[in-house]
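Supplementary Note 3. Input sequence used for the single-chain structure prediction.
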Amino acid sequence: MEFTTRDEVKNVYERRAAWYDLTANLYYLLGFREQAYRRRAAEALAVGPGDAVVEIGCGTGLNFALIERRIGAGGRLIGVDLTQAMLDGARRRVVANDWRNVELVCTPAAEFRFPAQVDAVLSTFALTLEPDFEAVIAEAARALKPGGRFVLLDLKIPDGWLGRLAPLLLPLVRPFAVSMAVARRQPWRAMERHFAQVRRSGLYFGIAYLAVGVR
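The predicted structure, written as discrete structure tokens, is reproduced below.
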């Protein structure tokens, strides 16, 4: 299975939802500093109290606390995910923290209609799984306020000799619906087509990256 369709991805995450938070942390054993990378992504949003943020592929809401800390009770957070089971986990997190400014939307990312005048958009380890990621990026660019940011934290095939080992490393990420076909996608190229400014930095030997587009 190549996980190139939404249904294939959805089936994987419907099954993994109950254990997602636990299994995602297992990569720390390999030196993959996921929480540190998520913090960097949240900082790159450059949002403050009262701002509106959309998170694409929010999953169980692992980034929500990082965002809420910045936008406060007067802000607005919209979490979008393909999988209802993952959003159920996000809803439990929202209730447990009494966040009253969070809206959860179950829909394919490419079919989500952004509200007008969004301050920032975030996606971590999710956008590459959307076949029509360019449509998501284009719609986000349209909805963002001038100066607003699109922040993408995701995986890719590394450059150089390590990239040649990608087929051997694939079993480590395949449980999260990543195949070679998915890993070859390059959404940061789409960001370069839709944003005036894009900067990208490599993480974890180039296997992950953080890209920031400014409208």
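The domain at 6-214 is CATH 3.40.50.150 (Rossmann fold). Residues 200 and 211 are 4 Å apart (CA to CA).
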